[in-house]
Amino acid sequence: MWKKLHHQTRSQVRASFDELENWILETFGERRFEHDESEEEIALEVAKRRRGMRFFTAGRPRDRKRFASILFPIFHGDPNEALYEEAFQDVLRVAGVSVKPQSRHKLSFRGGILYFTADSQGNLYAVVASDDFPMASVYEFLDEMLEVYESIDVASALDQAEESLWAEKQFVEDAFGVRELALTSWKKRVRPGDGSSFYFEEDTPDFSEFQTRL
Q: How do the domains of the chain map onto residue ranges?
């Protein structure tokens, strides 16, 4: 009788420990990690499906220094921003010096579509957009930005910039103070439904008022 009771007690204690161990794993361990990883993957996929022109960047191939890195307003907090920057850095490294002024290039990657071109000084300019966004609108935007930068002696400014400035995020994001001009150009090309991860039907209400408020 005592042995039977002792065996039952040990079984109950073992079961309790097993339950506790499972709870710890779910809360702090492998299962929680897998759950978080799954949520992160979903967030990245949702961000990838968001429509519109998301990101503008610019840099110099010779030393791969970037002097613009701008997420457009409705895409602030985009978890794929690092992918956008990585794709542009790859282009700077691999193809940068061979891109001809005002030529047009398109690269598909995990985060979307990277469109890029160059100015007469050899600097590269790029936009990341969703695959449904009109290429013509992207290059209209890039052409306007090229006009802005062509009026700046980018090479001299970058050469004379103190090395410590490249560690400052604000400088890398907008070294020449063109953010407002970039946003003005971007606003002209925002479509109804941009920023969403789904498609609007053809009878979507007029969003022109929303566009003017951005």
A: 2-45, 50-187
Instruction: Kindly give the confidence (pLDDT) of every residue in the chain, 214 residues in length, as a single tens digit, with 9 standing for 90 and above.
Output: 544 444 454 555 455 545 545 554 555 555 444 445 566 666 666 667 789 999 999 999 988 999 999 999 999 989 899 999 999 999 999 887 789 999 999 999 989 999 999 999 899 999 999 999 999 999 999 999 999 999 999 999 998 988 888 888 888 899 999 999 999 999 999 999 998 876 544 434 444 444 444 4
d(CA 94, CA 107): 13
**Does residue 169 contact residue 64 with C-beta atoms inside 8 Å?**
no
Pick the CATH number of 50-187 from 3.30.230.80, 3.40.50.150, 3.20.20.80, 3.30.450.50: 3.30.450.50
Query: Which residues, including other chains, have CB under 8 Å from residue 62's CB and lie 6 or more apart?
Result: 96, 97, 122
Whole-model pTM: value is 0.73
What are residue 115's DSSP bridge partners?
Answer: 106, 127
Rg of the chain over Cα atoms, rounded to whole angstroms, equals 25
